[in-house]
Amino acid sequence: MGAADERVTQLLDRWLKSVELHGRYLALDDAAYARLQAWPRHERPTRWVVDLARTRLLEVRRLLGERQARGDEGFAEALELMAFLTSLLGSEHVERFIPLARPRKVARPRGRPAAARATRAQPVPSRRQAAPAPDSAPRPEPLPAPSDKITATVIADAARLISWGREWPQLAGLIARLANRPPETEVWEILRSHRAQIEATARRPRD
């Protein structure tokens, strides 16, 4: 199995697990669904959308398995490039998608809401404890100087890809394939040096 086959297989498995979780979440009301994790802005998927996504994912995984059995590595590479182009060209203002669901979060459709339990269990701060300064929270680093155009471009690419649901290990390979970007080894150096800024930028709410 080639590297592209392995990456695409892992991506399909991750999406399938996410879709299965969304199938369970259909029984939750909107408030309980919102508490599950920090969702990106999106239109909550309906049962029809979840079922269709599961069907299509299983079909793509079947086709991928057939091509892998034939030793055809180009099929996985084409799928990977198409997924990247779809994110790059077609998702700027799209909110009707199924966001990646994290398995470590579990639904609690019955009983007292998790948020209420956490609020009740939170200790009351002592009066002697000084309140934190308003500006004590960590802030993202400023963007690089305009003269460092390559670094600024790579940082912007990485933040955008993370906001679209890409995982950190995928970033360097995806960015290096874009036009006028440095080789993958140089992209990795920029990503490692500016990881905190990239992740902070990617988490900023959209206007």
Structure summary:
The chain is built from nine helices and no strands. The chain has 207 residues and is mainly alpha-helical. Among the domains are: 3-90; 149-202.
Mean pLDDT across every amino acid position: 76
Assess the beta-strand content as a share of residues: under 5%
As residue ranges, the low-confidence spans are: 113-121, 124-138, 143-147
Compute the CA-based radius of gyration.
21 Å
Please outline the major beta sheet. Answer: none
The helix fraction, in percent, is: 55-70%
How many strand elements?
0
Please work out how many helical segments DSSP would assign. Answer: 9
Descriptive account of the structure:
There is one protein chain. This protein has 207 residues and is mostly helical. Among the domains are: 3-90; 149-202. The protein has nine helices and no strands. It has helices spanning 3-25, 30-35, 47-69, 74-90, 114-121, 149-163, 171-176, 184-193, 195-202. Helix 1 runs antiparallel to helix 3 (47-69), helix 1 (3-25) crosses helix 4 and helix 6 packs across helix 9 (195-202). The longest helix has 23 residues, at 3-25. 14% of the residues are buried.
